[in-house]
Amino acid sequence: MKSKSTRQTSVGGYSLVELLVYMAVLVVLIGVGYAALYFSMSSSAALRRSGDDIANALRAGEGWRADVRAAGGQIKLETTVDEQIIRLPGPRGEIGYRFATNTIFRRNGNNEWSPFLSNVKASTFISDSRHNAAVWRWELELQPRAKTPGTIRPLFTFLAVPTGDLPR
Q1: pLDDT in tens, 114-151
Q2: Which of 131, 129, 90, 121 is nearest to 108 (CA)?
Q3: pLDDT digits over 34-71, tens only?
């Protein structure tokens, strides 16, 4: 029989080193989780901005198409080095679209030019003749918001035929 002094008692517990290791693992897991959350929130915000840009471009294109279809006279296109203007005569006055300084401007009658679509990289109004009708084409490219590699920017092409140019 062993005496009390020679008997070793075993007490369960964690050593300080084990606690530091567990805390380090916990900090690494929280850091990785935070980085993943931040990345997903950033991607979600970029996707929302791109969706808003696409929706704005589609609304602008549909408005332009409606104005071209409502044009009642000869559509005029003016191109200079700095800008391009398309003038659409209509029953309620002339409507103009102008591309300058990365923005599409719209003017109704003799009012001031007002911004219609911003964040535009390139815009071209083109007159095409197709089967005895004058078709107008608007090619539009949006400006990239970030320098992210692999980002694809939407390109749009809108077609419209003035009702006065339809063959009878």
Answers
A1: 999 998 999 999 998 877 778 999 999 998 776 665 56
A2: 90
A3: 999 999 998 888 888 888 988 999 999 999 999 999 88
Q: Which of 83, 123, 91, 120 is nearest to 108 (CA)?
A: 91
What the block records as the tokens of 14 is 């964690």
**Positions of E strands within 15-83:** 76-79
For tokens 């920017």, what's the residue?
Answer: 153
The tokens describing 66, both together, are: 């409606």
Tokens representing 80 are 């200079």
Whole-model pTM over 0.85: no
List the Cα angle 144/67/73 in 5-degree steps.
Answer: 130
* Cα three-residue angle 28-29-31, rounded to 5 degrees: 65
